[in-house]
């Protein structure tokens, strides 16, 4: 499918915000269920708590700010779901509630609600949690630890690579039985959801492709294993479900390329040259800040006007 | 005439300010010096317990304090160490006993590590690990498990880089001290 | 219209609060308010410099030619800042260490030069003293408030310590939310006290949107 941006008149699509949000949540379902399978019921409780607190906060804020109630558009629920998918499965429950409240209030409502927020609200919530509770956010339950089969905590594949030089098998990364955030470990399940979104035309292919491509090429250039860096960490979750957020990503085709490539460069820089093992969250948040600028400079020329 | 007035006024203001400052400085100087001595005293007494008096020695960018007590003579040495941490310079002081067989203590003097993570190097739990730590071979750190060897400390969870920095700073400074002393 | 001394004192606490209304002195506001004691001592140090320099500037206001007034103010302010810095170093070494370079940096705090230029150079000693006292107290109050919120949350008032509150981002979040809260209160009380004047002349406090 080829999307062309043009001035009015527009062909009206029958995709409403609610339908889009529901399709995205449906696409996240495999990864969510996978997270519960790998990390146990505590993961399911975290997801539920996060969604409920996000929706409840949205409702309270709507009432307090005397705005139209917007919880039925599903965006708050999606924010809650995405936030839960990118936190550690062993996070204390109340912390995810704080994260969801922060995401909705500071990340979304104070900017003016859906459509006005500069930063991806779920990632704002996650950034808050990472800064507020760094120890809990970097303590990772091992996959299947809840069944009492294995060691309880474990480094994520990226942390193991960065701090101890240990690799993780591609197969384990693909399947997902490794340490990590609830919804980021299984490449298989994330691909399933991502491809479904592409197939339904909900997201544009340019951002994921340029994002993932840049990470692969750059990690190859810097003599790191490109396949490992594609499969490990939250890259796929970020590329398909967070970098493609309508509100916080560019609207022009050229802008999407710039956004994806910029985020990809940041991920590789953070992963390979900084003190942090993973950089997907900061790469997307950082590029979010540039979106208004990108949109402005990649705006298509109006016919007949000088450039 | 106007120019003259400007010059006179500004000069007068400068002179009076300077005079006031000179007076205040004279008063503050002694107290500030006393504060610094007290700080050094506290640090040295903490890392080499039992010290009654010490001698400050500065050699090749290295500052260390030979510590003595009233009875047995030399107790050990307190060495100032400095190096890069995760976010900024870490300054610390470490004590070794007289025959250089073990560390007697460690105290972080200045650090800019992340609050809640790396900043835990300033906490007593982390610093206590250096009491009675074997001085040779150089210190090593382990993660997530209890130390098994006499020269091992346990890194702070989630702050491996800050813990490693402390270990590296101490090891490097000790090597230098062995060379110059 | 001549306004009373009480007005000059109180405006610094609320209507023209240097921190929440004029957004002056942001550098220490954001940098040193990691704890109550840091915020409070920074506020008091600033209050001291503000009081002394305002009084001196007001006393000398007719003696200083206007072409060199800024240079003269800066010398006066710098002298008092150095006095404050030496005093802290001598008597409160720990606080001085925690505040670091931000005590010497009071020299460039806009509140102080701002009050000297906007108020003390045009008013008598007593109003200038009261104005400086109000502004300084407003600044101290604001820094202490931010410091207490950050220290309480950062040290674990709500469950685990919120490390973010003692990081720079916590300062921005706290300041932003406090300004928002202040705006809400101001809007509410204004709507209650004075119904908007129907004439709504531009520049008038009573009319229209302020």
Automatic annotation (TrEMBL), chain A:
Lineage: Bacteria, Bacillati, Saganbacteria
Keyword list, A-Z: Cell membrane, Electron transport, Flavoprotein, FMN, Membrane, Phosphoprotein, Translocase, Transmembrane, Transmembrane helix, Transport
Transmembrane regions listed in the UniProt entry: 16-33, 39-59, 71-91, 97-116, 128-149, 169-198, 205-222, 228-248, 255-274, 280-298
Location relative to the cell: Cell membrane
Membrane topology: Multi-pass membrane protein
Any one of the GO CC terms: plasma membrane
InterPro entries documented for this protein: NqrB/RnfD, RnfD_bac
EC number: 7.-.-.-
Subunit structure: The complex is composed of six subunits: RnfA, RnfB, RnfC, RnfD, RnfE and RnfG.
Similarity annotation: Belongs to the NqrB/RnfD family.
Cofactor(s) for this UniProt protein: FMN
Residues the record lists as FMN phosphoryl threonine modifications: 156
Top-tier EC class: translocase
GO biological process, one term: transmembrane transport
Role played: Part of a membrane-bound complex that couples electron transfer with translocation of ions across the membrane.
Annotated protein name in UniProt: Ion-translocating oxidoreductase complex subunit D
Transmembrane listed as a keyword: yes
TrEMBL record, chain B:
Enzyme class, UniProt record, top EC level: translocase
Enzyme Commission identifier(s): 7.-.-.-
Localization of this protein: Cell membrane
Membrane topology of this protein: Single-pass membrane protein
Start and end residues of each FMN-binding domain: 85-177
One MF term in the entry's GO annotations: FMN binding
Cofactors named for this entry: FMN
GO BP of this protein: electron transport chain
Similarity-based family: Belongs to the RnfG family.
Subunit structure: The complex is composed of six subunits: RnfA, RnfB, RnfC, RnfD, RnfE and RnfG.
Protein name: Ion-translocating oxidoreductase complex subunit G
Lineage: Bacteria, Bacillati, Saganbacteria
From TrEMBL, chain C:
Protein location: Cell membrane; Endomembrane system
Enzyme class, UniProt record, top EC level: translocase
Protein source organism: Candidatus Saganbacteria bacterium CG08_land_8_20_14_0_20_45_16
This protein's GO CC annotations: endomembrane system; plasma membrane
Membrane topology according to the record: Multi-pass membrane protein
HAMAP family: RsxE_RnfE (MF_00478)
Role of this protein: Part of a membrane-bound complex that couples electron transfer with translocation of ions across the membrane.
Protein name: Ion-translocating oxidoreductase complex subunit E
Entry keyword set: Cell membrane, Electron transport, Membrane, Translocase, Transmembrane, Transmembrane helix, Transport
GO BP terms, alphabetized: electron transport chain
Spans traversing the lipid bilayer: 36-60, 72-92, 98-116, 128-149, 161-185
